[in-house]
Amino acid sequence: AHAYTRTAGEASKFGVPWPEARDLFRRFGGHRGIRLAGLHVHLGSQILDLEAFDDTFARLAEWIETLCADGIELEYLDIGGGLGVAYREDEQDPDPRALAALVQRHLGDRGRRWRLVVEPGRYLVAPAGVLLTRVLYVKQSGPRKFVVTDAGMTELLRSSHYESYHRIEPVEWLDRPPELVDVVGPVCESGDFLGRARLLPGVAPGDLLAVLTVGAYGFVMSSNYNQRRRPAEVLVEGRCARLIRRRETLDDLVAAERDEEV
């Protein structure tokens, strides 16, 4: 996982380290203005190996017994998110049924009833999103060939910010010899790219490309940097396609600007 997506550990700004958590519960467990109702654990993001959850749930079960011994009863248990998806061709989605089996093994048979909360947001929505972008031009620069598209880091920040991998494919079949290219955006940043060293059939200006698995942390992280206007969003359900967000205009970019005394 990229360093920016690691939310667990004593050096993280998130949460409370295990050694300090018991003292925190003891300190506030009897406070008349605070009711400790639940416990939340979050390992990180884009986790494909369920062994990390197995270890955490085992430790969590022991820790809950410690809290019960201290007289603290929980109403709900939030095991967080982190369940990843297959972004690369050689990856596989983790099985949510296997995750449920781990929860049952470590936390299910303890004579208590908790409200269990799970946060599988990426797993649910990432595969549902596709970014369509058109090739503006193709540029050879020394040994590297750049495919410049009309979408970039302002539309999909993950590639630049997290060094994330998204599959990129032509929308229509192109019967052309494959080439090793960098797919980049039009923004004036060297880090403005959608994919590097990708083997694509020789694309040309006007070709439409699909960037896959962008339903999570895609549009929500887009921006107006470089005075870029956000694209439209279309919801496809079966054979029905509906515009659910219009393309932004220049008026949208300047709508909040004012010249007023304060």
Topology readout:
Layout: H1 18-29, E1 38-40, H2 51-69, E2 76-78, H3 96-108, E3 115-117, H4 121-125, E4 130-141, E5 144-149, H5 158-162, E6 168-170, E7 178-184, E8 193-201, E9 208-212, E10 233-237, E11 240-245, H6 250-254
Parallel strand pairs: 1-2, 2-3, 5-7
Antiparallel strand pairs: 4-5, 4-9, 6-9, 7-8, 10-11
Helix pairs in contact: 2-3
Describe this structure in words.
This protein is of the alpha/beta class and 262 residues long. The chain folds into two domains: 3-123, TIM Barrel, CATH 3.20.20.10; 129-254, Lyase, Ornithine Decarboxylase, Chain A, domain 1 (Beta Barrel), CATH 2.40.37.10. Helix content is 23%, strand content 24%. Strands 6-9-4-5-7-8 form a six-stranded mixed β-sheet. It has a three-stranded parallel β-sheet with strand order 1-2-3, with no helix packed on it. The mean pLDDT is 92.
